[in-house]
Amino acid sequence: MRRFLLTILLSVVSVTLSAQYDAGYLKSLVANNRVSFKYSLGVKGAAPVKMDGKVVLDGDCYSVRGNSLEMYCDGTTKWVVDRDALEVYIESSEGTKDFLADPSAWIDNVKNLKISENSVSGSYWNAEQEVTINFKFTAITPSPLSGSTEGFVFDVGSLGAEWLVTDLR
After folding, report:
1. What secondary structure, in 3-state letters, does the chain show?
2. Residue 61 contacts by C-beta under 8 Å, 6 or more apart in sequence?
3. pLDDT tens, residue order, the chain (169 aa)
């Protein structure tokens, strides 16, 4: 009888724990917190790509750093910085959130989704670009929303003359 009750208790606990970490958990985490995480991803398509780096999400603001590319967004303006090519592209950010900048918007279309307290992994098909993105987010760290754009703006005024800045706004 004890073994039976222990089995029932463990089943209830494991169902309760697994229910906490689903797509809804990730959506709520991102919507209600400043969240930072490390990422690694591979893009399968005509031109395979592997990237890894760090992301910080804070409301409508985000920064993505990886390899030699960086993206910053203060909620209205997006800067894409290529340090190897010495180029910066500036554009309006309305509706331009990318996979890494808003994973909760794409999470319902992820196959093989695995979510734990501080990691998320799966495969996402990007129909627009006709590529599969295999990804893993680790070291997910939530903190209170800051309400500030500090760290989400790129200062092109500090760049040297050798940089090419293209403002598409």
Report:
1. CHHHHHHHHHHHHHHHHHHHCCHHHHHHHHHHCEEEEEEEEEEECCCCEEEEEEEEEECCEEEEEECCEEEEECCCEEEEEECCCCEEEEEECCCCCCCCCCHHHHHHHEEEEEEECCEEEEEEEECCCCEEEEEEEEEEEEECCCCCCCCCCCCHHHCCCCCEEEECC
2. 73, 74, 75, 149, 152
3. 333 222 333 333 333 334 457 888 888 888 899 999 999 988 887 777 888 999 999 988 999 999 889 999 998 999 999 999 999 999 998 755 666 666 667 777 788 889 888 899 999 887 777 888 899 999 999 999 998 999 999 999 999 999 999 999 9
142, burial (CB in 10 Å: exposed 0-12, middle 13-18, buried 19+): middle
Rounded Cα gap, residues 63 and 60, in angstroms: 10
CATH of 21-167, one of 1.25.40.10, 2.50.20.10, 3.30.990.10, 3.50.30.40: 2.50.20.10
Who contacts 101 (Cβ-Cβ below 8 Å, separation ≥6)? 55, 57, 62, 64, 71, 73
